[in-house]
Each structure stands twice: as structure tokens, then as C-alpha cells.
């Protein structure tokens, strides 16, 4: 039996090889899913931890415990530290991650103190911090063996005006009253590297602590009559060891820690909760993006397997007539499909691994790079997916055999069955599905704002929103098949009497087989339309993201200078403050060195109050600029179709340059306060937050000299997230003033340095800690969501080209083989070869060219209808630049070129087959049949 099956496969080796290709691609795409899911999940985890560190300015994976212990139970510092180490050991027994660092601080409440050089009634806490000397730099030092030595931070020094060598007289309770203990400031310290994981709490965070050695701390415990000793313990873990496999397990353990110990805390669970939400989104996106491609491959496999089964109908009838049961015939084909599925499984796993790695390496549509994709590795779930896909393929190929393995029936009966109108056409399934797709599109468009907020809140997306375009393409393809049939009947009725014999025979064939040939038309339409939509969706997403980033940054690169704030407290309780401006000359030298074409200061403040008439606005966004330098440095990214503003933005800079006290304001601010050009307003600024959170220190009147909709670096819409994770949209109001005026009226405050790089220069030629548009674009391209989308759309587009070309060529070649007898008869009746070719060309026009054109039209229509909606997933924020649809001519030419080559090759092959056809052999074939 097995040898018989192998011979059957060999007899039609080319068809079976094409079937194997389809099965291998289906399994490969199937096994891509778990590898892509795990790899993207690990990438998201790494990104979330990194973002947390940047945004919260703390190590992203730390477990902590803060509280007090009774001195009676823990009489010295070492016993407390041992207890804290015991907690750390217990935590890492369950959360099996390497320890990066640990910070343990124990403190006594201290008391009121006077200082040697006049400071009175200060409050200090006595603390012991193991490892302090290892992680700090000593700014100043002075020893004094006569008293207890202590160390203080630079912040404490600045706050109280202390110096090295100064004595602190601390009044502490000793059980019988107050006792004075003298400390000498032996060291003033600052962190060696404030970014070191050890600094879970920085010296500034620890407050007014005087740090002593362990021996001194133990001695201090003897002086105090307090019952408790305070502690804080921070354990920093290697977050790189948290991955998709153990994230859920570790999250569960940490939940148990919190339930069992109310003093326990960590910053890992919040990150993991965001990860679990995004992981669900990734899973849904992957299936939604893979499903259309899987359906396309199923259509391809169905087309090939149907051709094989059609050619083997007579073999099945012979087996049945010689006594084989339906079950035996089914088992025979089950073995045949099993061999193909097994081979496809082996090839599919290897091919799936390669495809996933290739898709992960993209940073744009059809753009493969050599970037690091180490998170995308082989996972054992790929084997399970491969077996499941192979079983699906075996059943899909074999089940139709059961229907075919009936008792012999007449050819006429078979023809009669084949002429039945399909169920979908009888029930108008195409119209129903098209109406359903339009209804879904209408509803989703009405809910755009809600959908955008849900994306920003990291809630799961609705996969139907992504699949609706595929539903539309499928329904439109069925409708085109219906319309093509009607066009064939109409043309035949109108010109039937004028047709030549060859054309008459051609239309007769089209009418007889139009239901059977509809499958090819649906396949071609879905392939072409899907390829066009995938290309346009990817291009639109990438282009809009890049344009928004360029607009938001406003120039090539930005450096946020480090300003030192000096605060002085006066005896009357008032506070004086001043910022020390760094040397700006080092940036101006970049122009002389040919690294930058433009450099400018941009002072920014997002805590500005604006009033005009009876109206007022809080938390407006102030930009103070030098108009000439700013014009040479900044860039305003325009919309696709037109500029954002009514005139070029340089005109507004010119108006501002004419008015020293003038301002440019945003159109939403003008609308909110009822302002127009020439009106006056007043704007006020607050003192630095380090001095006071809510105190205005200066105001200025200004004249409105221009109103703009967009300005470099100005984002009109912002989004705030509350403690429950709910996101609210808010508008930002812009006011742009002259830099010299603002500094004169408000004093020097921190500014950022904007740079316009010279051609061929990059940020690597300047400083490391720069914010540049290109860096942000690269980071965005490497985000998991964008990477998955680019990768899947690229794979889908390439697979569409391959499957369409092979399927189209194979279908027509096999159709010609099946009609070999018919063409032989036509030639025997006197029909010339030129007429046979004309007949086939006519059939190709209706069965191939029209579907290809329809596919192109449907793809462009789907782009216009669905791309902006689906873009909400990637661009949920409102922006000064709206979402514009991008259709790249190169993509369309690539698709058209491949299809043209496929059609041309098909026609050449058909012509050669017709030339090689022998009339006598064809007629003899008819006699044998």
C-alpha cells in the first residue's frame, strides 16, 4: 500500500510539489505565531522596564520593605541587618532572579540640634548605611577624634549652610531627660554614580540624615530611650531574567508576598500588569494579521488539491469499481496527504523559524536589517503548532475525497452537478457580507475617540476592527465574481450572432464553467487586494509615525542642559533662588567646526498662567526663542497635502522679531480667550518647584503678533493617566516670546539647546545624552507593536506575490491539460492555432485580467476605507498633523511587475503546450476515455 501511495505521488510530482509548498508555507506561518509572540513579549518586557527606569527615575525591578523594629528584640544594628537579609533570601527563593544590588538603611529618630556656627533648632536623624563609602565621593573632609564623626550629603550642607569640620550638638532623650551629643562633620558626600542600582534611595531622598559608622550607631542606641528603630530595605534584581515564561509565576509570588506582609512592596507588579495587558493585545494582533494570510494559503492549497482530485477522479472510480470501499479509498488518500503533511511539517518548522527571524529584523515595510533580534528564539510551542497545522492540512486535503469516493456516476450527471449555482450566489452571501462590513466600519468610525482612549489605556483591542478589511475584500471578491458572470452573459447575448467560431466556443466555455472558475477569480482578487492593502497600511503607519516624531522634536537634536539651582533662606523666612547658566559657547563652537548649521537656546516652561480680559488659562506652554537662530535651527514638519498654518511659519517669526514684547499664540489659545492679532494679554510664571509649588513670581504684558496652528515642538494634545489607569485628553496652549525679553523680565531659567545638524553629521558626533528625531524614529521602529506589524505585512506581501504567481500559472497549465481533448477536436475540425490562442486570450481576459484589475481597485478602495481606522491602533493620539494615507508607487509597480511576469510566463507556457499538442494523440485520448 505504501509503495502504491509513493508511486501516486511520483506520477503527479509537480502538482504534489506545489501542494507541499503550500502546506509548508501554511505550517511555517502557523509556527511563526508562538515564536513571534514570545519574542515580542520579551521585547515588550524589556522596553517596559527600561521606560519605567527613565520615567520614574528609579531602578525598575526592586523589592522593598520599610518599617520599624522594637529595640528590645533587636538590641544592635547587626541583628536588624540580619533580619532584613533574611527577608531578601526568602524573596529570592521564590523569585529566582540574580541580585544586582541591595540598599539597607537603619535610622534613629534623632532630635533637635544646634550647629557650631549659629544654626539653631534644626532636626537631624542618625543613620547607618552599609556600603556608603563604596558608593560615594567625598567632596570635603575633616577629622576630629575628640567627638563622634558623621557624614552628610551635599543637599544637607546646602540646606543648612554647613561646612566640613563644623560640629552638630544633638539633644537626645536618655531616659532621665535630655542629653547633648556632639558630632563633627568629617565628610560631605555625593553619589559616585547616581544611576548605580544601589541608589534606590538617593542621598537627597533620605532627608536630613547624619550618617555614622556601625560602631557609633550601636553606641547611639544605648543613649536613646526610644522603643523602635526604623529601617528601609531595597533589593534590586536583574529584570532581564524576567521573561514571558516566568512573568506570570513571579507576579503570583509577589502578590502572595504582599498579602502575607503588609510592609512588603515592589515596583515590578505594576510593570507586569501593563505587560499582561499588552501581551493580550499582541496575541490578538498576531492572529488578526496572520488570519488573512492563512486564508490565502488555504485557498491556494484548496485550488491545488482540487486540481489533483479532479485529475484522479477516474482513478477513484476504477478503485471503487474493483471492489474498494469508500473507507479504503479514504485511507489511501489519508496516507498520501499524511506524507505531504509530514514533509511540510519538517520544512515548515525550519521555514517558520527563518520567516519569524526575518520579520523581526524589519524596521519598515520590505526593509530588512541586521539589528539584534536575540529575543526571538526557537520555543517548544512551535512543535505543537506545527503538529496542529499538519493535522488541519491532512483533514483539509483528505475530507473532499470521501465525497468523491462514491459509486460511479455518469459524466452527464457530473456536468449537471457542476452547473449548479453556488449557495453563496443563491443566498446573496456576498451582498450580506459587504453590508456587514460596511456596518462594522460605520460603527467603528463613530467610536474612534473611544477606541483611541482604550488603546492609550493599554486595554485589549477589538480584533474585528483589523479583520473587517479582510471581510470587505472577501465580500467584494465574491461580488466581482457575480458581476463578471453577468458581464459574460451580457456580452454573449449582445454579440453572439457576430462571434467567430473560436469566440463562440470561448464564450460557451466561459458560460459552462463560470461557477467552477469563480474560485480562481476570488483567489486572484484576494491576493492582489490584500497585497495592496498590506503595503499601503504599512507605509501609512510608518510615514505618519516618522512625520509626527519629526514634528514633535522640532529640530535634528536637543540637549537638555544641567542647570544648578541655588537656594538661600533668609532670616525673615523669605527665599532667594538663582540658576547658574552653563557655558553656551561650547555649542556655538559646533557651528565653527562644521557639525551644526544652526544652534539656539529654547527656554520652555509648562507652568504658565495667561489672562486676557475676563478669561484665563492655566498650565500653558511657554517657548522663549531667538527668532533668527530659531529659524536657522528648527524645522516644522508639514502635512501631506498642505502646510499646517495659513502661511509659512517664517512669516510669524518675522512678526515676532519686530515686537520685543510680542508673542505668537496657538489658535486654540486665541479661541479660548477670544484673542486676535493686535490684542494684549498677560502671562505669569511660577518659581521653581524645588522652591515652592504654587507661587507666581513675575508677570508680563504682551501683544499678540501672530496666531498659529502648528509650531516646531508644539503638540496641541496631551494625555494624562490617573491612578486607576484612566486616560483623559487635554489641550495644550502655546505662547512664544522673545528670549531676551523673557530673561530680562523673569531671570535666567533652564533652557534646552536645539541643533540643526550639518549634512552627513549625526548625534554621535556631539554628545551621548541627546534627544534626536532619528533616535526616536529608530526606537519607534523597534517597538514590538510596530515591528510585528511591519514584519507580518512584509511577509503577507511577499507570500501574496509567490502564491499568486505560482497559483495563477499552475491553474492555467492544469486547465489546458484537462482540455487537451477539446483543443484536439477543435484543431481536427479546422480551427487554426491563432484562433485557439485568441480563444484562450479571451478566457484569460474574463477569468484573469478582470479579477486582477478588480483586485487592484478593491485594494485601493479598502485602503481609503480602512487604513485611517486601523491606524488608531498605532497612532491613537490626536495630533497637529492628521493621519494621511500613503500609497508608494514603487510598491504598486513591484506588484504589477510580478503579476505581469506571471501572466506573460503563463501565456508563453500555454502557447508552447498548444504547439506541442498532437491532434492524433488528442483524438486517441478521446477514444481511450
TrEMBL record:
Task: Keyword check for NAD, yes or no.
Answer: no
List the GO terms this entry assigns under cellular component, sorted alphabetically.
plasma membrane
List, in alphabetical order, the Gene Ontology terms for molecular function in this entry. Answer: transmembrane transporter activity
* Domain ABC3 transporter permease C-terminal, first and last residues per copy: 294-404, 797-915
Has keyword Nucleotide-binding?
Answer: no
Q: Which InterPro entries match?
A: ABC3_permease_C (IPR003838), Macrolide_Exporter_MacB (IPR050250)
Highest taxon, organism lineage: Bacteria
Indicate where this protein is primarily found. membrane
Keywords, alphabetical = Cell membrane, Membrane, Transmembrane, Transmembrane helix
Location(s), subcellular: Cell membrane
- Pfam families, alphabetized: FtsX (PF02687)
Q: Topologically, how does it sit relative to the membrane?
A: Multi-pass membrane protein
Q: Which residues cross the membrane?
A: 14-36, 284-309, 330-355, 378-402, 423-442, 471-495, 515-533, 791-813, 845-875, 895-914
**The family this protein is said to belong to:** Belongs to the ABC-4 integral membrane protein family.
The name this protein goes by in its record: FtsX-like permease family protein
